[in-house]
Amino acid sequence: MQPFQAALLPRLLTGRLRLAVALRRWDQDGDGTIDRREFEQKVVELGLETDDAHLDALFKRLDGSGDGLLDLDEMKATLTRLRESAYDGAAKLEAQVNQTSQLKKQANGAAEAARTALKEYDEQLTLDDLLLAS
Questions:
Q1: pTM, whole model, 2 decimals?
Q2: Which tens digits make up the pLDDT trace of 4-40?
Q3: DSSP β-bridge partners for residue 69
Q4: Which domains does the chain have, with CATH numbers?
């Protein structure tokens, strides 16, 4: 993910940048939609650096209808999907962390059992050596 996406999407997803307010501010011609040019201009004004390919990719991701214009309803729908995907990803990551923690505990238990078995073997070997030496 490009730095501008990493900066812009969280603002939109967490509601710190309200969609309706953003749409009005970004909609320079007042038609109720944001076209690619308006979108690019605002991204630049936010100080987020990107190239055309990445900007196009994000715009297409937000443009659920594919008509080349962003309106409030499709932006809400797209951001809802992105938010749900982010929550799903976080839940999967948390599950992996928990699984890793469980595996680490099991591995530590197995290592401790191996150390104990080796210690007992070493002690037994020492006794056997003493008996054989006598």
A1: 0.51
A2: 555 666 666 555 556 677 778 888 888 889 999 998 9
A3: 35
A4: 3-94 (1.10.238.10)
DSSP the chain: --HHHHHHHHHHHTTSS-HHHHHHHH-TT-SSSEEHHHHHHHHHHTT----HHHHHHHHHHH-TT-SSEE-HHHHHHHHHHHHHHHHHHHHHHHHHHHHHHHHHHHHHHHHHHHHHHHHHHHHHHHHHHHHHH-
Q: Do residues 40 and 8 lie in contact, with contact meaning Cβ atoms separated by under 8 Å?
A: no
Q: Which of 64, 63, 50, 37 is nearest to 7 (CA)?
A: 50
Handedness of CA 61, 63, 64, 67 (dihedral sign): negative
